Amino acid sequence: MANIRKLGSRKKIAIVAHDSKKKDVIEWAVHNKTALARHELVATGTTGKLLEEQLDRPVTKLLSGPLGGDQQIGSMIAEGDIDVLIFFWDPMQAQPHDSDVKALLRVGVAWNILMACDRTTADFIFTSPLMLNDYEVDIPDYSSYLNRKL
Q1: pLDDT band at residue 148, thresholds of 50, 70 and 90?
Q2: HSE (CB half, 13 Å, CA atoms) of 29?
Q3: How many other C-beta atoms can be found within 10 angstroms of the C-beta atom of residue 5?
Q4: Cα torsion at 121, 127, 130, 134 (round to 10°)?
Q5: Which of 38, 45, 83, 110 makes a 20 to 30 Å CA pair with 60?
Q6: Active-site position among 19, 70, 83, 138
């Protein structure tokens, strides 16, 4: 039986963007400024600074992604402190911290959170009526994995 985590109507949203995608994520955020105003925002380094400036609202800023910000967000996801991950990454450009990127995506899937890696998916998430309501998320049961004999 899976565990349940309740999301309130006010979600905690992490926003991350690779350098080549920062313009795209900022344009998306400005376009969705009203919807984002209902929620709490967390972002890595420069993305957080740009979001604060463009949205004229506070954003909890973590370290830059390559300096540990991706890992900080991953930790927050694992602890149940992030409800939605908006992560605009560049599939055409290798990143020096690709292992961190993969780990962040893995932990998001492992904990069954909402994730968008492109504008279309982010738009669908934010136009869903479920974003405005409480919602119960099934958290997979990893007990058999944790209790396996090595």
Answers
A1: confident
A2: 32
A3: 15
A4: 110
A5: 110
A6: 70
- The span from the CA of 6 to the CA of 25, in Å, is 27
Using DSSP, how many helices (H) and how many strands (E) does the chain show? 7, 7
| Superfamily covering domain 9-130 | Methylglyoxal synthase-like domain (3.40.50.1380)
The alpha-carbon radius of gyration of the chain (Å, integer) is 15
> Could you write out the DSSP letters of every residue in 26-60?
HHHHHHTHHHHTTSEEEE-HHHHHHHHHHHTS--E
Question: Which two structure tokens, joined as six digits, stand for 11?
Answer: 């979600």
121 residue type, one letter? T
Task: Work out the pLDDT band at 92, boundaries 50, 70, 90.
Answer: confident
User: Do residues 113 and 121 lie in contact, with contact meaning Cβ atoms separated by under 8 Å?
Assistant: no
Write out the two tokens for 12. Answer: 């905690």
Q: Do 41 and 59 contact (CB within 8 A), yes or no?
A: yes
Interval 25-56: pLDDT, tens: 999 999 999 999 999 999 999 999 999 999 99
